[in-house]
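We close this part of the discussion by returning to an individual protein. In the encoding step, the backbone of a single protein was reduced to a row of integers, each denoting a local shape. The sequence in question and its structure tokens are set out directly beneath this paragraph.
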Amino acid sequence: MLCPMDGRKAISITGLIGLLLLDAALVAWALWPTPLPSAAPTPSMPVTSETQGSEVEPTTSPTASPTGDWEPVPLARMVAATSASIAWLADVGACGDTGRIHVTVTGGEKWATAEAPGSVLRIRPTDGSTGFVVGGDADCEPHVWYTGDRGETWSPPQSAGNAWGRDPDEAQLVLRPGGAPVQPCGPGAVLDLVGLSGGAATALCGDGRVTVTTDRGETWANSVTAPGALALSFTEVGEGVVVARTDGCIGVTVSAVSAGELGAPTCVDEVAPVAGQVAISMAPRAVWLVVGSDVLRATGLTGPFSKVATWPGA
């Protein structure tokens, strides 16, 4: 029979276990984010010994250069959506100049804006209230911050050692789970990055190459090359969309990627692309696209896109 002291010890131990489980869940959330379902079913590219831990030649080659002298740069604005109604936008900011988070749960009709706890190099929402950001503090040290109220309050900074993210100080570096930063684009800049699981990620390089890893960033293989590519959104290795600026389209083009093959581009006109302000995100039954001050949405992978909002604060 337990005495009162034994009961108090049991309660304390139970509480400690609960806290440890909660901490483990938060770490797992950043390390292994659940891939978002694609807007339409597409065949997956199997991960084999030829794609994992080895270098693979690109499946396509560049055929054109970006229009004029307009050069792709790392994203300064981001979008991450979880449905046709819910999307999170982010002004990236910089070290010592915090970013901003904008959240809609009404498909773009209304937005809640909050200051981020640092610069923002990656956003990962799970719904209209809960999510995390990977970014840098005033000293450009990378961290992860969590929120459960659309950015009104944030958790204390957590280690970024368990999450994928772009480095807040060096454009060519990518943070990866459990290892030192890597350079998926060699000496070139990383324009955009999607963390797919603890071991898999997809990066967009300034020269249009889409590179993938399935071994926690130890090796990166070329998947496709999209001339003039500006941003991407992938739900698994080899499956996603790429938005680019190319000759023959006054706005931007959106191309599906399936089984490592780049599909035909669809032109999205009547938009004015701005360097660093083009982003895209796939969600169930919707694809969200940011082009300059325009926020657009489509029900298909490559459109047609319709404007649903102007960038909050623009």
Q: What stands out?
A: The two ends are 68 Å apart (CA to CA). Residues 45 and 259 are 4 Å apart (CA to CA). The first strand starts at residue 77 and ends at 81.
